[in-house]
Amino acid sequence: MDLPLRYQTPESWAKLALKQPLALLNDHAHLEKKAAGNALELLNRWPQPVPPENWVQAMTTVARDEVEHLAVVTRLLSRRGGKLTRTHQNKYAAQLRKLVRMGTGPGELVDRLLVSALIEARSCERFALLGEVCEDRELAKLYKGLWSSEAGHYRMFLGLAKDLPQVSEVDDRWDQMLDAEAVIIQEQLPGPRMHSGV
Ligand SMILES: [Fe+2]
Ligand SMILES: [Fe+2]
User: Fold this and answer.
1) What is the reported pLDDT for 48?
2) How far is the CA of 51 from the centre of ligand 2 (A)?
3) Which pLDDT value is given to residue 167?
4) Residue 50 banded pLDDT, cuts 50, 70, 90
5) 167 CA to centre of ligand 1 in angstroms
6) Which of 45, 56, 86, 161 is in the most buried spot, having the most CB atoms within 10 Å?
7) Ion ligand 2 — residues with CB < 5 Å
8) Of all residues in the chain, what percent carry a pLDDT higher than 70?
């Protein structure tokens, strides 16, 4: 699948991240948890006056998928002797969230959906890369399996944003967001994290 991302992660990123597989799994588990929470938070933030037909179903589907991913990743983590940390930071996502025009009603909603789509698209790109590079067969299988699920989420969030009533210029906003994401991802520090820099 062609992702619209404007910065292509090099293979060297995956090789470096995989040097600390447990730390990578821990970071990954937290991201799945946050993704589930994000979908549940969006569940009742549908555009006024009534939710589009597929809104609630889309959000519950994403939340359920992410909880499933969380279960798989945390199981692998503990089986390999790792531990889920209590706290977690994701500067990449925090910086993307700053792009959301808070308090602007439909504008805020479109931005939230687009940021969600961006995070899914970037995760998708990175899972594909990890799946190719990883020499550990069990982990390679995990990453290859997640790729298609996150690709589906990316398409769903973008589709919901484009279908929003009362919002024009979603394409322009998406174009700006894609540019901003390419800068933000490159500013991240390197390390065993899904959204780290190079
Ligand atoms: Fe996921
Ligand atoms: Fe996802």
Assistant:
1) 85
2) 21
3) 77
4) confident
5) 28
6) 161
7) 35, 120, 150, 153
8) 100
DSSP code of residue 167: -
138-194 tens-digit pLDDT: 999 999 999 999 999 999 999 999 998 877 789 999 999 999 999 999 999 999 999
State the burial class of residue 42 (Cβ atoms within 10 Å of its Cβ: 0-12, 13-18, 19+). Answer: buried
Residue 5 in tokens: 């991302």
Between the CA of residue 37 and those of 16, 43, 65, 118, 127, what are the distances in Å? 29, 10, 12, 16, 21
pLDDT score for 12:
97
Q: Cα–Cα distance between 43 and 8 in angstroms, integer? A: 31
Model's pTM, two decimal places? 0.96
CA of 76 to the centre of ligand 2 (A): 18
Q: Are 194 and 14 in contact (CB under 8 A)?
A: no
Handedness of CA 48, 65, 82, 120 (dihedral sign): negative
Strand pairing partners for 190?
Answer: 197
Q: What is the rounded distance in angstroms from the CA atom of residue 84 to the CA atom of residue 82?
A: 7
How remote is the CA of residue 100 from the centroid of ligand 2, in Å?
19
